[in-house]
Design brief:
This protein has 377 residues and is of the alpha+beta class. It has helices at 2-18, 53-68, 78-95, 108-118, 139-155, 164-176, 192-199, 239-251, 296-304, 350-356, 369-375; strands at 34-38, 183-185, 188-190, 206-210, 220-222, 233-236, 256-260, 267-268, 273-274, 312-321, 327-332, 345-349, 357-363. The chain is globular.
């Protein structure tokens, strides 16, 4: 009798531990993250009702670069760069007779290009809010600008006048404010150009990388996404090497601008995680879940069928691991600090990164030497 009771007890315990295959990692304890790398960065900001994540992510990257270089914390103006970018987009749109992209979106290189050409100013010098709200709302101004540009393209009679771009610039000044020629900051007088010089950033240091099989490895090509309206070229790496660059960059103290897809079911900013659940895992927001194995072929398939698109740019500032040893990339979003439980940050798993990364921007010194040599950098 005692032996039967003992056997029954053991059987009951084993049943609890392994007898119910439906009780997988979803029934584990909630996410427990351990820091691997945490880089110093500037505070989280809020892009609000504007499609300017590309600028917020890149400015955050640059502010973090300044901290890495030992400079004090800076709060740089995103809207100063956005204003100049809208102007250049309009010129290109007209030159292409309307066959180029004009909307709120953009890429990391857009912020770098405008900073190099027009300098930069602090946030308090140019908040870019001249339209009666305390929040960035670009729906109206983009509608106004788009309507004006369409009228030039579709309804003009004869040659364009020399006045159209000045009239467009006045719209930008009305909504965002005139770009300052000089300003005072911390007891010094600057122009946007001299302030940019004082930051001591080398714009040639920053390169953009991607990973797609429809172009040769280690070549540079015009990435075929609508927000690459400037038609800049990206260096192409095999997926494993792209992830190697990302890991090496963060481990060496360099942050990353990330461009990718956030429309999949596994992305939950509110819960602070982004994963690629394998099968039905309804509780992935609360508990670690088994994830899909991501291959180069699957990634390419989703890019080709447009399941994976460049929805959003964010800023990678660290690495963590959960209690099961899965690696996650600490991601600084531009949706304010009260948007989730991690003060505006979230953790994207390595499978999520492998599947949904469209492109990244890194400092060229963050690339492992053997990969940089293959790219000719």
């Amino acid at each position: 009798m005692k032996n039967w009771i003992k056997i029954a007890s053991i059987t009951f315990v084993l049943t609890l531990l392994i007898g119910n295959p439906a009780r997988s990692q979803e029934d584990n304890q909630t996410y427990e993250f351990t820091d691997v790398v945490r880089l110093e960065t500037s505070p989280v900001k809020d892009q609000q009702s504007s499609g300017t994540c590309w600028c917020f992510a890149t400015v955050s990257f640059l502010e973090t670069e300044l901290l890495r270089k030992g400079q004090p914390e800076h709060d740089l103006s995103e809207m100063y760069l956005v204003r100049h970018t809208y102007m250049q987009k309009a010129k290109d749109y007209v030159r292409f007779h309307g066959h180029n992209n004009f909307n709120q979106g953009g890429q990391a290189h857009d912020a770098i290009t405008e900073l190099e050409q027009h300098g930069i100013v602090p946030e308090k010098v140019y908040p870019g809010l001249e339209y009666g709200t305390e929040e960035h709302r670009h729906g109206e101004v983009v509608s106004v600008m788009s309507g004006y540009l369409e009228s030039l393209i579709e309804k003009r009679r004869g040659p364009l006048t020399t006045a159209w771009d000045d009239a467009f610039a006045q719209t930008l000044d009305t909504y965002f404010g005139e770009a300052p020629e000089k300003f005072e900051y911390k007891g010094e007088t600057y122009t946007p150009a001299t302030f940019a010089e004082s930051l001591d950033l080398d714009y040639e240091d920053y390169v953009e990388l991607t990973s797609f099989t429809h172009h040769p490895w280690y070549s540079a090509f015009d990435l075929e996404v609508p927000d690459n309206w400037a038609h800049k070229k990206y260096h192409n790496l095999p997926l494993n090497e792209l992830v190697e660059v990302m890991d090496h960059s963060l481990q060496q103290g360099y942050s990353i601008v990330w461009d990718g897809d956030v429309s999949s079911e596994g992305f939950s900013h509110g819960s602070g995680v982004a994963v690629v659940p394998a099968g039905e895992h309804s509780h992935f927001k609360e508990h670690p879940a088994d994830e899909m194995k991501i291959t180069q072929e699957l990634r390419q398939k989703q890019f080709n069928n447009q399941t994976m698109t460049d929805d959003h740019l964010m800023h990678l500032t660290g690495l963590v691991e959960d209690q099961n040893g899965t690696r996650y990339y600490v991601t600084k979003n531009s949706w304010d600090t009260d948007s989730n439980a991690f003060d505006g940050f979230l953790n994207m798993s390595e499978p999520y990164i492998r599947l949904n990364t469209v492109a990244i921007m890194v400092h060229k010194d963050a690339i492992p030497e053997d990969i940089a040599e293959k790219l000719g950098l």
